[in-house]
Amino acid sequence: MLGPKIEGLPDDHPSEAQCLNGLSLFKSVRNSTEHKRLLIHTLKLWREREDVRQVAITLRHLSEANRLMFLRENGIEQAKEASGIFERAGDAANQAACLIRLAWVLHDDGQLDAAKSHPV
């Protein structure tokens, strides 16, 4: 019921991306496909607004969603991109969270050597 109202907001509405992000986390409990769809839309909005930190956070969530949906190649790329953004920003804590996410996706993909040796 709330989802269509939030998605109906204009893309330039100041709260739409934040609301979609919250809604996607709620949807993750029930429907991973819907969760991913909302995250992709949220990512588009953050990219348009050039909010690099929020782009990276959303990529980290999207990486986990893809891992859980067995779409590991996508999850790997998203975790790497998010990690790079946080590295350039000097945000070691969020970079570490992305690297942990990357290690799990690589592990699940059977790339154990890559998971163990990925540069931190």
Order of helices and strands: HHHHHHH
Helix proportion of residues, in percent? over 70%
**Shape verdict:** flat
Strand content: under 5%
CATH superfamily: Tetratricopeptide repeat domain
CATH architecture: Alpha Horseshoe
Low-confidence stretches: none
Count of separate structural domains: 1
Record field, number of beta strands: 0
Determine the CATH topology.
Serine Threonine Protein Phosphatase 5, Tetratricopeptide repeat
Largest sheet: none
Instruction: Report the oligomer.
Output: single chain
- Amino-to-carboxy terminus distance: 43 Å
Mean pLDDT equals 83
| Assigned CATH class | Mainly Alpha
Query: Number of helix segments?
Result: 7
Classification by helices and strands: mainly alpha
Task: Output the radius of gyration.
Answer: 15 Å
Question: Key terms for this structure?
Answer:
Serine Threonine Protein Phosphatase 5, Tetratricopeptide repeat, mainly alpha, 120 residues
Blueprint of the fold:
Elements: H1 2-7, H2 16-27, H3 32-48, H4 52-68, H5 72-89, H6 92-108, H7 112-117
Helix pairs in contact: 2-3, 3-4, 4-5, 4-6, 5-6
Q: Could you explain the architecture of this structure?
A:
Helices cover 78% and strands 0% of the residues. The mean pLDDT is 83. It starts with a helix and ends with a helix. The protein is built from 7 helices and no strands. The protein has a single domain (2-117), classed as Serine Threonine Protein Phosphatase 5, Tetratricopeptide repeat.
